[in-house]
Amino acid sequence: MWHLYICSGDPIFLEQFWMQNEAYSSVLIPGWHRMSYRYVDYTLMSTELEYYIRKLHSIVGNAVTEGRYMVFGVGSSQLLTAALYALSSENSSSPSNVLATIPYYPMYKSQTVLFNSENFDFRGDTNSWQSNTSTNNLDVIEFVTSPNNPDGELKKPIIGGKTIYDHAYFWPHFTPIPGPSDRDLMIFTLSKLTGHAGVRFGWAIIKDKDVYEKFLNYIMVADLGISKDTQLRVLKLLKVAIKDDGKPLFQLAYNLMRERWDRLTSVLSKSTRFSVQQRHPLHCNFFNETRLPSPAYAWIKCEKEEDDDCGAMLEEGKIISRSGSFFSAKDRYSRLSLIKSQDDFELLIQRFTELVSLENDSIETM
Amino acid sequence: MWHLYICSGDPIFLEQFWMQNEAYSSVLIPGWHRMSYRYVDYTLMSTELEYYIRKLHSIVGNAVTEGRYMVFGVGSSQLLTAALYALSSENSSSPSNVLATIPYYPMYKSQTVLFNSENFDFRGDTNSWQSNTSTNNLDVIEFVTSPNNPDGELKKPIIGGKTIYDHAYFWPHFTPIPGPSDRDLMIFTLSKLTGHAGVRFGWAIIKDKDVYEKFLNYIMVADLGISKDTQLRVLKLLKVAIKDDGKPLFQLAYNLMRERWDRLTSVLSKSTRFSVQQRHPLHCNFFNETRLPSPAYAWIKCEKEEDDDCGAMLEEGKIISRSGSFFSAKDRYSRLSLIKSQDDFELLIQRFTELVSLENDSIETM
């Protein structure tokens, strides 16, 4: 029996939707199309695409975009760093302190380390920072991931300095949308919205004009703008996404995620060894009803004291997950991706069922 | 009479070729295509595209690719910075010194300044560095741009430390190809090869395995790889580019550039006020004959002592060029782009002819 890699966040779960909508979602790009660095209005970003992104947010009700600026980037990945450059004070004698709350997405750290900039330093967890620091007057930039990757929680800032809201998962298929996010700097990505990770497209919504201009300058100097083919494709995909006020896409995506959670929690209900994060119902303005969240990831905890490497426990059942330490948490936790293909999910349930039945067998034979 | 902006390096000159080849060069991308971050072989880069790039270099004879590694990036822009990260020593207590030779492409400096990394510092011109530095044992990374932007010269390293060869313009339409470049780190871009600047695609050819791995890690952490749509489109374009051993594309592109140079030098031959860089014939292995270079840019010099702002002189004729200081050179020089559309070029010749005739009128009236 081979290993099932359910560790990465590759969002293949919506492939089925795009196959059903092939007739509307394909793009044809002629060889002579968009050869220039810039559009005719001399911008690097398609104003039509920007219009559709604003329309999408207004339909979903997950972000305030009126009177805000927008910048496109190579996935949300590039925008995370661009945001650090835009928010850190270049004239300061000491670098800005970059923080996140454990468990956090490891790219915040690995990017900050890679760039090794004099403008900012990664300082790790907000909670240990708070307890070690007497003054709150220091220059802090905090990543707030809401819903959080890996545990799906709707996070709030801990420190209260400058914040970067990573809203990659703030869509109705993963979480009830209690209302539009109204933050100074919000980052979204196509990957977890439509499932097109390979397209590499994200956008930032920015309140402050100076921050916007530094942001734009970063994208300009780093890459001379982002691919026009990508922008054309994203435009086509978003036109499909907002059809019938987004109902077909989000209803299908939500049903799929809810079914996966129902099946996973049903298996886990028979286990005393493994547990999963608590989910709390919230009113979703988009679906206009109270619902449980159905996060992209299951954050599994191994409950027995001796099982302090939960990833290794899952690997016994040939399930390769992403260990807690990857997110600067304890290895008693491990992340399972629920946004992979249906085949991968079926296999996950099958193997988890076997793992749990072994657990019950061993109880019976005790 | 409005101003003619002939300052940017936007390469629209080959639009005509791609319109003629529309039937072969269009791509259709279905909505469900390449949703994953990775290809089935788990790489971020299309191996088929890599195969075609190697094939292209072997046809053109401009770069050794056997036994070398390849990394794709968001234009050559992103690869310039990736190269600095890959070559600078992260464990060193002092940053690597980044140098280029005046006149140089300003992105080398603006990127280094933007990233403000502890790994490297931009130190400006190789020649002033040489005269100010007693020891050559310092950690130096030198950008060697060949042919050079702005002046089209085939440059060689001045310092002789670690080098990044920027070969954006090393194609048979801009310069005779004396033989394959065989350097440790070479960067190419689609922009000046096929004219698709908006696609944002470049590649690096790398000799050393460690450098390659650091390079790949940079692209992975900064952006989680590059757009799959872009890779698909580039594949289609390169298949057209190498048709009939590249003869249709490079013959058309060369004829176009040679005609532009012939017409420009014909106008300039009547001027004592403006001159342009010397061009020296070389044997081109690709076309198998000795030819003059036909660079992407004309590097105009104002010859009169009082005309120390050549960009301002050109602006009198409603021609907006890019001033020498943009390239850290004197403003006695200014760069004109010869790779813009045919309409722009026709207008350039018309306005230059008027400027030169004014010059001759004023001589006659003296």
UniProtKB/TrEMBL annotation, chains A, B:
Stretch forming the signal peptide: none
UniProt name for this protein: Alliinase C-terminal domain-containing protein
InterPro entries: Alliinase_C (IPR006948), Alliinase_N_sf (IPR037029), Ethylene_sulfur-biosynth (IPR050478), PyrdxlP-dep_Trfase (IPR015424), PyrdxlP-dep_Trfase_major (IPR015421), PyrdxlP-dep_Trfase_small (IPR015422)
Protein species of origin: Ambrosia artemisiifolia
GO MF: carbon-sulfur lyase activity; transaminase activity
Cofactor field: pyridoxal 5'-phosphate
CDD domains: AAT_like
Domain Alliinase C-terminal as annotated: residue spans: 8-356
Gene Ontology biological process terms in this record: amino acid metabolic process
Family: Belongs to the alliinase family.
Keyword entries, A-Z: Aminotransferase, Pyridoxal phosphate, Transferase
